[in-house]
Amino acid sequence: MGKKKHLSLTAADSLSAPTPKTPIAKVLALPGQYLCALEIPVSSVEENLAKTLKSMPQWKEEGDKEEKEKSDSIVMLAQLPPKYRNVIWVKRGSYVMVDLNEQLTDKVCGEIMGVLLPNHIKEFKKNSLWPSGFGDNTQKATEPSPDSDDDLVANTNRVVHYDSESDEDSDDE
Questions:
Q1: Cα 114 from Cα 104, distance rounded (Å)
Q2: Which of 26, 86, 108, 168 has CA 20 to 30 A from 58's CA?
Q3: Count of domains for the chain
Q4: Which CATH number goes with the domain that contains 73?
Q5: Considering only CA atoms, which of 34, 38, 1 is closest in space to residue 133?
């Protein structure tokens, strides 16, 4: 078994139940350099750790001019560890487990332990370990319905011919 395959299997299987030091977070953006902007509900973090994280400068997007003060969530930066950088892929809207035990820099507050798969999310919800700050709309974000075409982008490589019946009606008169 290759190194990448072994790492990806251990990353997916080694996720344990969330704790106040290792909460579940939602990926808001990927600013680059293996960093992820995460949103963590305050209810899933210890009180003194939440105060510490709130006092730190919170991450904001470049184009985000208005201040959005959310008292029920913390927005912070976390990095992907070097051993997972070409193995685990993180995208916006997905859920990850974050290790908040060590602060890496003054802006980066933790490390990503792994990406939660839909079966992890179902298991956490079934065992009532899912944070209440994310609500029940997470299933829509993680599991798209197979018959919905909302995610499909129109193919711009082909010319679309529309048969207009109004032109045919005017020719018949």
A1: 18
A2: 86
A3: 1
A4: 2.40.50.140
A5: 38
